[in-house]
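name: query_chain
kind: protein
chains: 1
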Amino acid sequence: MTVRSPHRDRYDASALRTAFAARLSALYGREVPAYTTLVDVAREVNADVLAARGPEAQRLGSIERVTAERHGAIRVGTPAELAAVATVFGALGMYPVGFYDLRETAAAVPVVSTAFRPVDRDELARNPFRVFTSMLVVDDRRFFTPDLAARLSEFLSRRTLFPPSLLALADRATQEGGLEADDAEAFLSAATAAFALSPEPVDRNWYAELSRVSSVAADIGGVTSTHINHLTPRVLDIDELYTRMQARGIEMIDTVQGPPRWGGPDLLLRQTSFRALAEPRRFREPDGRITDDTLRVRFGEVEARGLAATPRGRELYDRLLVEPGDAAANWRAAAPATERGMLDADLAYFTLAPTEKRPDGPPPSTVADLLDGGWAVATPVVYEDFLPASAAGIFRSNLTGSSRRDDESDGAAVDLAWLEGAVDRPIHDPYALYHAERAASLDAVVAHWTLPTRPTR
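structure:
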């Protein structure tokens, strides 16, 4: 696929992002055919939901957006590699959002993560491509002994994930706001190739040694390149997709991660996946022979996105996920059954837009007055980010063995500030982004009606 078009000579970040997401999807479909089945089933389910529910099905995004939506996942080994990733994704208008520490989850995976995605609502509507990016924490002694850490660091220092020519094009795209067609083609070709599964043989003993710590550590530090770990489509009915995938003979993990279907608005995120597949790989044996075998590393994740939760909504979500008893009944008892109830209880983010005709009566003093009096309408904000518990659940369901963590040893102080230094740019707070979007919409309503005071919550 080429990006050249008789109607376009220059590609801005949005066009580059859209083209890259499409190329990455085509690459992953060739490498993992079951992913193509997943995409096909998601498309079928979405079409059926749209036919059954009509406009309501597009409450959290147009069907065009939902159909095109993907989030990828990659893994790198060092701060320098993570900074290079930030450079490549920066050319696509994707910025680091959120800090996730999977070392402290039930899966005990020795990585910290951020997600690269657009942060502007219009850019998200054009193409909401996201890449969840994890970095190995080699200095965490709970996972890696000093000797293993030294050898792992030396191994990682010898590899180059992204050619200098790709990084130079990415820098230019960021500085100049895009690329001409020929340079865009070169950038997209090199960026896609950088995430392809390498045919280079895997050192059997080295990979096995890292696997005894964590299969994720082996996947990152046991090979000389990076690759896509999963590429996730979005579906409007994840329970139906789960059933249809099983009917096609695809082995799924045991459950859908996240809250149950309970009858009220979907909050945050629900996820599931097909199980990691045995993929053919070449190995270098201790005696130098090259043999053929398989590895189970990559899996097919799919997600259903709901309302972006406020901090109060997130607290409710986290509490209900672990509350004993019937999960659906717990949600029905504790959570509002309508979007308006979620808004009034400040559990989810919504944007406001003015109605067409100015209502009669005194100016509203609260957001509830705005809505009840016909001054504004509310639209839910879709959740654009990730959840450590769900990510860990997916990881744990697909790991070939449990991670080894020695809690008597010292961890590594890798936090948000440290990661910002590693990528040499600020990492956005998801809540701040959602809050700013909500506040801006309220200010726009106030300006539209020239209200004397800003309504309160």
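note: The domain at 10-307+384-426 is CATH 3.10.180.80 (2,3-Dihydroxybiphenyl 1,2-Dioxygenase; domain 1).
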